[in-house]
Amino acid sequence: MYDLWIGSVIAALAVGALVWGLIFWCVVRYRKRGDQLPVQTRYNMPMEFLYTIAPILVVCVLFYYTAVVQTDVDRVKNDPNMVTVEVVAFKWNWQFNYRDGAGEDANTVASTLGSSDVIPVLVLPTGRRIRFEETSKDVIHSFWVPELLFKRDVFPGNVRNVFEVESINQEGPYVGRCAELCGTYHSMMNFELRVVSPDEFDRFLQAKRDGATTQEALTSIGEEPLATTTKPFDTKRTVSNFNPSGGE
Ligand SMILES: [Cu+2]
């Protein structure tokens, strides 16, 4: 996706430079030189051919690479080694359920639930395939970790929106957001993706299965217990924002 993005920007700049160049060249070359009106109808066959064919070619090339990348990004495999997470979105927070298999019939073995006071931290390992299965409790949300260059809508009802990540290469915290306007506190629907080594992940999950909270389990593997990329927002839910001077 990154390469496609960079390639598209270069292509756009190249077309832009050509067009700007032609504009400036025309401004200088065909500037007003006298009072005689130039010929008002004229055609240039090679030029008309060029500006019909060139955009079609540009669109075809962009379409081809987009289709290739999109097919690759959307591919799901049934890899028995992958980590499956059920992402449950609701107004206005997230629940992350670690599953023992793929699909609706698998079981949740551990769970992390966000609250107004604690940002939910989704812990995942490096080097393993990750399968996300998304579902919403109310309206459409969108699961977005900007560093993954990827967002995917989370639908209510019986829809499980599934996507997989080949592997995450770098450990560390990554901020996550809801990217679909879902109501009053949409902007506060943040979470954190915390990527750790596979070994630490196994110990984290074991601690969770043994009944530890997410914060305790994070501490037990030597990680910061709370989110480091974002913090809970002050929602001011008890304050009347419409009439600050008046009483409730
Ligand atoms: Cu949302």
Automatic annotation (TrEMBL):
Task: Name the residues that span the membrane.
Answer: 6-28, 49-67
Report the Pfam families cross-referenced here: COX2
Location in or out of the cell: Membrane
Q: Supply the InterPro entries for this chain.
A: CcO_II, CcO_II-like_C, Copper_CuA, Cupredoxin, Cyt_c_oxidase_su2, Cyt_c_oxidase_su2_TM_dom, Cyt_c_oxidase_su2_TM_sf
Query: Which PROSITE patterns does its entry note?
Result: COX2, COX2_CUA, COX2_TM
User: Where is the sequence biased in composition, kind Polar residues?
Assistant: 227-248
Region listing for Disordered, in residue ranges: 221-248
Q: What class of enzyme is it?
A: translocase
The record's annotation in SUPFAM superfamilies points to:
Cupredoxins, Cytochrome c oxidase subunit II-like, transmembrane region
Please give the coiled-coil regions recorded for this protein. Answer: none
Q: Which domain of life is it from?
A: Bacteria
The record's annotation in NCBIfam families points to: CoxB
- What is the annotated role of this protein in its UniProt record? Subunits I and II form the functional core of the enzyme complex. Electrons originating in cytochrome c are transferred via heme a and Cu(A) to the binuclear center formed by heme a3 and Cu(B).
Name listed for the protein in its UniProt record: cytochrome-c oxidase
Which lineage is the organism of this entry classified under, starting from the top rank?
A: Bacteria, Bacillati, Actinomycetota, Actinomycetes, Micromonosporales
What gene name is listed for this protein? coxB
